[in-house]
Amino acid sequence: MSVTSPTPDHMLHAILTRARDIEERITRGMSMAVQTNSQSKTFNLVSRRLKTSVIRPLREALAEVRRTHGSELNVRTESDPRAADSTPVLSIMGLGDDMWTLAKDATTLQFNAAMPVETKEAAAALQYLACELAAIDAADGAAARLSELKAMQAALSTGIQAENNGPYLVTNGERVFNWLGERIPLPPLTALCRCGQSATKPFCDGTHAEIHFTDQKDPKRIVDQRDTYVGQQITLLDNRGACAHSGFCTDRLSTVFRTGKEPFVAPSGGRLDEIIRAVRACPSGALSFAIDGREAREQVDQSRPAAIEVSKDGPYRISGGVPLTDSRGNAVRFNDGASREHYSLCRCGHSQNKPFCSGMHWYVKFSDPVQAPDHDPTLFEWAGGFPALLRMTRIFYSKYVPEDPLIGPLFANMSPDHPERVAAWLGEVFGGPKNYSDQYGGYARMVSQHLNKGLTEAQRARWAA
Fold first, then answer.
1. Which of 7, 50, 220, 254 is the most exposed place for a label (fewest CB within 10 A)?
2. 20: which residues sit within 8 A by CB, 6+ positions away?
3. What is the pTM (predicted TM-score) of this model?
4. What are phi and psi of 313, to 5 degrees?
5. Cis before 263 (ω within 30)
6. Residue 195 burial class via C-beta count within 10 angstroms: exposed 0-12, middle 13-18, buried 19 and up
7. What does the alpha-carbon distance between residue 461 and residue 441 come to, in Å, rounded to a whole number?
8. Structure confidence by residue, pLDDT tens digits, 226-272
């Protein structure tokens, strides 16, 4: 007797049915029992996410599979009426266990090439919900689930898929940070908000479908054109059509990148090292440079781990060459000359150059949720977090230390990552995350690096000054 493998519509239908049954059990359970405000809030949130981020995309995926491949089923499209006799879900643990099983089954759908991208959106929501519920049940409850999910997806490459009129689906995004440089723990498949209206930013909550978000480019966007500015030592290349208008270049090197002036770029208006630093810091990838008539792309695009920064009230800043694909898995077209190693993705929903940021977040006054009024910022936060400290230490050790006769010789042979280590140390001392202790060994390790160097009080004072 031969065994027939489940078809895509069989698998999608089975998971959709179970998701609906869980949602119905939550609804019945809430109407049949008295619960605390915390429990009621949790069940309400889970119920909404199931409807908007799991059931809806699964229905869309099932419809797409049947349009494309035909249906081998003549099945119900609503929840099984027999589920009405089941015991209502009345505990976080019971709900979490059911969600965990469903999340694992949905995760396996990624490996089926016939599955539409909407199945990934549903799987991402289920991974998120399963881990959130586990964290409520136990302080370390999510850790084991995250580990198992990562193992299930270990064969998949890190990447970002821009779903058509939907969220950014991030696969195996290990290094995701907020604007302070603090790590944001993510499930291995995560849906990031793209419409700007999610109540759980930066995570997607399905609002894009309710507001009919569209990812079409605006025909009035800045033209995709790469301009060349020839200078005495360096030639600068710039595509205003790719610019996210973060202001890094104009704010930090206004003699070269001149707001409100023509030409915008004056390539001989600054020192070579400052210009190169500004080009490399451009988060949109719109800038590059050439020396002796050859573009030095290998100098502009740095070799660094893949990372995503959720900037403050602004775009997602991608670095490390994370592949960007569309709903069908095809590479997204970048603007002429724009970097593939670092780029900025729209997060406000209003960019004229979707999926890339065009700076519209400034004009629509896009903002993240504000902190509680009683929040007392740490020195780390006041300083601007790890990115600001790292920028300071890099400039300090590259520009000021080498020319100082007192401390310059001490650092003549320092390791290339010394500025990163110092920035991590300062961040931890100022109340930020324990990155230095976790990565480099903490205070004891720092002290060991300074033993037997014969540092004088004058050198210590000069370094601090």
1. 220
2. 55, 78, 79
3. 0.90
4. 55, 25
5. yes
6. buried
7. 25
8. 999 999 999 999 999 999 999 999 999 999 999 999 999 999 999 99
